[in-house]
Amino acid sequence: MNSAKNNLADREALKTETVFFLFIWFGLYIVGMVFIQIFAAVSGLPDFAKILNGITKGAYLEYLDTLKVLQLVLHLFQYLIPALIFIFLYHKKAALKTVYADQKPSVKNIVGSILLILSIYPLISFVYYWNTQLLPDGAISQQKLDIQKVFLEMNSPKDLILNLLLLGLAAGIGEEFLFRGIIQRLLTLWTKNIHFGAILTGLIFSLMHFQLEGFFPRFILGVLFCYLLIFTGNLWITVLVHVFFNSIQVIIPYFYPNLVGNISKVQAIAPIVAITSGFVFLLFLAIFRKINKDYKYIKIN
């Protein structure tokens, strides 16, 4: 009887926590959208749709840096700010411990995680290519890809730093605190299974990017980040790896601008390279798993 009552109380507490989180998340996203609209009106910026449509054709480029800053602000309101406000309001002094961000990551786990990402990179590229080939043209958000292309065209160190700040640092930290820190935990508790929690989090992580042409590679990466947290019990590992991976996506186009193009220019990775990448990844994963023998994440009864 007491066990049933405790389970019911835990379920009610989880429901309350989930509702509170969703309220904070969506509420602050709306605040961010309103802030940007007000800023645009006060600054005399043209209509956003007009700017985004024109910027892919070489117009309104004088507003490019402003757009990046506004995108950074919106990203903070969508990910990092609601995540931090939620955990510190709801969990108070136990906030960082609850999201596994209260300990320094070990050097061996940092190195191991980076090796995992580097080893799987060719396989991810292979999956990305075939993901694009399986979709009909109408399902590909070409305008969004064209905008990303403009954002990644960097002509100075200032452009590189701004992109690293937006696409590398802010995205890596914000998305990890939200998805791995909060959503993975809630889904794991709801499903009472760390594997279901990881898979569902990876699914939501990929869907939230609203790009079907990158769904499968992002899903794979999302699940991998979840398991890095499960193996290490340290959110800073996933933050560092995510920032590292995103930063690669920025640094490569800076030094090799010819690699920035639309979806039709995506080149296939040779199958042997992808297969080798997969084997090397599995080897590193086995070593990483041996170093981290026990799951250091939520213990589900």
Short description:
The chain has 301 residues and is mainly alpha-helical.
What descriptive keywords fit this protein?
301 residues, mainly alpha, globular
Residues in helix, %: over 70%
Give the CA-based shape. globular
Tally the helices. Answer: 11
Q: Which value, in Å, is the CA radius of gyration?
A: 21 Å
Would you tell me the structural class of the helices and strands? Answer: mainly alpha
Number of domains: 1
N/C terminus separation: 17 Å
Mean pLDDT: 89
* Major sheet details: none
Low-confidence stretches: none
Descriptive account of the structure:
With 301 residues, the protein is mainly alpha-helical. It has one domain (2-291). The protein is built from 11 helices and no strands. It has helices spanning 2-43, 48-55, 64-90, 95-98, 107-134, 142-151, 157-191, 194-207, 215-232, 235-255, 271-291. Helix 8 (194-207) runs antiparallel to helix 9 (215-232). The chain is globular, with a radius of gyration of 21 Å. It starts with a helix and ends in a 10-residue tail after the last helix.
